[in-house]
């Protein structure tokens, strides 16, 4: 299903886009199974309409929006972002959406709001992977409010000129391109503004391996593998050396969000 | 119901071809571009899986022949073990070639720094003497020591499963490694049990 959007020239990345087939058949979305081929096969059971998303917590105007309202809330833009998975591979994907800040402005965070928490749908009937106890469901992710308000943080409703395929987090997800992929919560049903740092799914499951921040950082290795390099899916074949991973995945404009912070400690 | 020499030779031929199927499948996939979005990951996982399968079957031979009274299957054990080594070598080669491009220094860094790789590497190194002493001549030459060398497998398989466990731990998906751990625990404790209960058949224990 087509989704019209104008290219935002500020994010018209000059890198080869990942093939649609790779981007839609190689996914980490544990609600649909832990194998990366699983979501493409099992996500058909997800019903993306009707869909509502509730925004509440430390806000002056809590809000529940359906998908159509969400699609009309701000002009849709196309943006090409690099996506770096914590597992050491990467893709380049043309997303469609608008800055999350547009939505956050509407609900008017209170003075004590410091974090934004995203919750993924938690319905065993639609998501077979929820039967397996690999994570503490529902999947929760979070950002600091200033991170969430950064123009790069994209409330995402489509990719490749279409609405999001189910396995990529339909009907609405976020995309935070300077952080490892798992920080970008999929199939979101609730956005909550909080005073305290949210308990996020992977940080909860393995705090020594996955930090709350999880910024792409070639200098901080995962305990089980190096993060210094990555394999670009579809481009870096078996006989190509992996490419160097860039600090903040190349989005150096976010560096000021972390000035004065020890990113080895707050990894 | 014991097969005669000719039948065993036939069974071995069939087993040989069957054991090559996973390798041929990989080769076919590689040639027809069907290794998926991340070919390195595919090959690496696939060869790792088959290493564990073959080594587990090898370890199951002794309990099986005692429990099912099929003594002759011991004649298949060497081939099964060597196929385990074959897939382990492919697994290691994938790591050395496609992950590190034969940069030995880089590889060593990885081996030393990351317990998950350390353990896998150690298991592979321990497999080498087993493979090298698998010929009839070496068996004869080593005599009683041969069995002692080949008991290394009791350590190698747990290391291999630990390697797999740590790999899967990242995914928090431990059902498969735990299944392997259980299987190997059963296979090893059967041996201990037989040993302790002193009911050692003349041909047993390996």
Word description of this protein:
Chain B: InterPro entries: Fe3_Rdtase_TM_dom (IPR013130), MsrQ-like (IPR022837). Chain B: It holds the Pfam family Ferric_reduct. Chain B: It is a multi-pass membrane protein. The complex is a heterodimer of chains A (267) and B (206). Chain A is an alpha+beta fold and 267 residues long. Chain A has one domain (6-258): Alpha-Beta Complex (Sulfite Oxidase, Chain A, domain 2). Helices cover 13% and strands 25% of the residues of chain A. Chain A contains 6 helices and 13 strands. In chain A, strands 1, 4, 5, 8, 9, 10, 12 and 13 form an 8-stranded mixed β-sheet that branches. A 5-stranded mixed β-sheet of chain A has the order 3-2-11-6-7. In chain A, strand 4 (77-84) and strand 5 form a beta hairpin. Chain A starts with 5 loop residues before the first strand and ends in a 23-residue tail after the last strand. In chain A, 46% of the residues are buried. The model of chain A has no long low-confidence stretch (mean pLDDT 95). Chain B has 206 residues and is mainly alpha-helical. The mean pLDDT of chain B is 90. Chain B has one domain (5-193). Chain B has helices at residues 5-31, 39-68, 77-99, 104-113, 115-132, 136-142, 144-150, 153-169, 175-196. The chains are: A alpha+beta (267), B mainly alpha (206).
